[in-house]
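In response to the reviewer comment on reproducibility (Comment 2.3), we provide here a single inverse folding case reported in full, input and output, so that an independent group could reproduce the run without further information from us. The structure tokens appear first.
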């Protein structure tokens, strides 16, 4: 499944209301839950937090990819959040994160999860796209940019 197929306007939050790492994770888990794809919000939240204890999912260049594996989802699911001012997510380069891609996957379906992570890594190499996403005014703009509309 391509990352583009996972993107739904109702799973995009622009701008995020949170100001810290914990808040971002909670907010994006709730956004994903609002799509009806999460059977147990707390289980998903705990799975993402557990993954963060292994090492921050804050990458370089303002991108963070918090994720977790849990039976609280049946298929790979994605929520996207934009924080134009940036949030400390303990990123590899020490800079604030502005683009957040929260992924949830069932434990027995690693393939799509890995593919989506690779797509996000490729996307992050386009500085123009990342800049446009950070400047997006609403969820529809984010979806259009990611789909290349």
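Designed residues, in position order:
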């Amino acid at each position: 499944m391509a990352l583009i197929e996972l993107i739904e306007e109702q799973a995009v939050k622009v701008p995020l209301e949170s100001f810290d790492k914990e808040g971002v994770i909670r907010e994006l888990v709730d956004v994903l839950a609002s799509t009806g794809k999460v059977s147990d919000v707390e289980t998903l939240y705990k799975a993402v937090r557990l993954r963060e204890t292994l090492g921050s999912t804050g990458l370089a260049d303002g991108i963070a990819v918090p994720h977790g594996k849990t039976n609280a989802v049946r298929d790979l699911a994605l929520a996207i959040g934009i924080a134009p001012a940036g949030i400390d997510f303990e990123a590899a380069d020490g800079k604030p994160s502005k683009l957040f891609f929260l992924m949830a996957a069932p434990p027995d379906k690693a393939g799509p999860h890995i593919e989506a992570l690779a797509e996000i890594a490729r996307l992050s190499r386009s500085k123009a796209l990342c800049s446009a996403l950070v400047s997006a005014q609403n969820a529809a703009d984010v979806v259009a940019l990611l789909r290349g509309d």
